């Protein structure tokens, strides 16, 4: 793997990872006039004065555990006979969601539910590929209860009521480009991905497969059942779980807000779906369901290296069209009285982030953007 060093940094992973919170808050304040959604209440600034020390201290956890939510039961015909192995009349419990939770000592009112993207599992939100703390620990330190999930038929929720053939298919290099680390085998010169062979190896090894057919109803039923257990909570989605988050919010009134990292698919009211853009198409939903998205705060965040003109790389061209559709979806929500916004990181001077900004080397800086938004929307209340 050929890598290129970031300019003006002997060790990009360490220098970006160690961004001072106070230094970032000063930077964010400098752009707040032009981009008011990046600002924060005075209370957040004062609360974070000791955050540098907190984020190097031991984690304090009051309670942790895991559970399944939702799912279905498959029953074989006949009557169970305990004297026959593999006999009739037996059950299989599957299609449920898995959640691992951690509760801090003094939790805020609303938990954060963290939902992985396509080909991923809850590992996305745990430690980063180069061993730093991920969002699970970062936001636990900020006094949020955190629920990291594996969606039905994925990862630790792999028990399925319908089988599927899993065919090993090499594709790491395609994803290197699609998730905007660079153009294989080169990283982008300003990439915020940790540029070590081990980090890249760990990155490729956190991929996983669906154990059953993809089914949005099955998946969102399981996650809606999770929200029935947690009560009101803020949902973080990533990539392919973006549209699943929109659909879950239509099923569960306990989805209090959505922060979507680079969603790949978008919803529109029936009869108002825009024309397809390249291979990207909008998804129609009933108007009554779409209007449920106008009742909660929504933020979509995009990272860097998304082309603004046609790209010869199909995977990058997809992102250009996705951003265009995302912009139209946000407009549709706001035209119906909603509270949706888009944050494009280069617009506020943050460059080089990948599709996985929350685990890039500046993930504390990226987490601060979420904290500011949660504060602005009064979602970090105690």
Structure report:
This protein has 382 residues and is α/β, with parallel strands linked by helices. The protein has one domain (12-77, 87-376): Rossmann fold, CATH 3.40.50.1820. It is built from twelve helices and 14 strands. It has helices spanning 12-17, 21-31, 42-47, 51-54, 135-141, 172-178, 197-205, 216-230, 241-251, 287-292, 314-335, 363-376; strands at residues 61-69, 72-75, 91-94, 97-104, 112-115, 146-150, 182-183, 186-187, 233-238, 255-261, 267-269, 283-285, 297-302, 339-344. Strands 1-4-6-5-9-10-13-14 form an eight-stranded mixed β-sheet, with helices on both faces. The protein has a two-stranded antiparallel sheet with strand order 2-3. It has a two-stranded antiparallel ribbon with strand order 7-8. Strand 5, helix 5 and strand 6 (146-150) form a beta-alpha-beta unit. The longest helix has 22 residues, at 314-335. The protein is globular.
């Amino acid at each position: 793997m050929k890598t290129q060093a970031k300019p003006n940094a002997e060790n990009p992973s360490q220098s970006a990872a160690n961004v001072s919170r106070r230094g970032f808050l000063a930077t964010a304040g400098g752009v707040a006039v032009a981009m008011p959604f990046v600002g924060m209440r005075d209370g957040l600034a004062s609360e974070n004065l000791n955050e540098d020390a907190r984020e190097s201290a031991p984690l304090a956890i009051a309670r942790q555990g895991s559970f399944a939510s939702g799912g279905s039961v498959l029953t074989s015909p006949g009557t169970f006979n305990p004297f026959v192995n593999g006999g009739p009349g037996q059950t299989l419990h599957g299609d449920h969601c898995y959640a691992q939770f951690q509760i801090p000592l003094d939790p805020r009112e609303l938990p954060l539910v963290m939902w992985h993207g396509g080909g991923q599992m809850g590992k996305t939100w745990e430690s980063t590929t180069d061993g730093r703390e991920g969002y699970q620990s970062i936001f636990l330190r900020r006094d949020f209860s955190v629920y990291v999930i594996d969606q039905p038929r994925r990862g630790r929720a792999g028990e399925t009521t319908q089988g599927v053939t899993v065919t090993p298919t090499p594709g790491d290099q395609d994803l290197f480009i699609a998730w905007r680390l660079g153009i294989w085998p080169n990283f982008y010169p300003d990439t915020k991905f940790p540029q070590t062979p081990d980090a890249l190896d760990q990155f490729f090894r956190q991929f996983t497969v669906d154990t059953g057919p993809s089914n949005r109803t099955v998946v969102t039923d399981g996650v809606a059942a999770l929200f029935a257990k947690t009560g009101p909570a803020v949902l973080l989605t990533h990539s392919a779980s973006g549209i699943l988050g929109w659909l879950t919010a239509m099923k569960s009134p306990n989805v209090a807000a959505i922060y979507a990292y680079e969603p790949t698919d978008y919803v529109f009211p029936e009869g108002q779906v825009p024309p397809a853009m390249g291979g990207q198409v909008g998804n129609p939903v009933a108007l009554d369901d779409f209007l449920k998205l106008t009742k909660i705060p929504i933020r979509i965040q995009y990272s860097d290296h998304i082309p603004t003109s046609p790209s010869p790389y199909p995977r990058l061209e997809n992102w250009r069209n996705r951003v265009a559709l995302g912009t139209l979806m946000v407009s549709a929500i706001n035209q119906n009285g909603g509270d949706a916004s888009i944050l494009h990181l280069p617009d506020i001077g943050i460059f080089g982030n990948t599709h996985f900004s929350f685990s890039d080397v500046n993930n504390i800086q990226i987490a601060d953007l979420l904290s500011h938004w949660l504060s602005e929307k009064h979602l970090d209340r105690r």
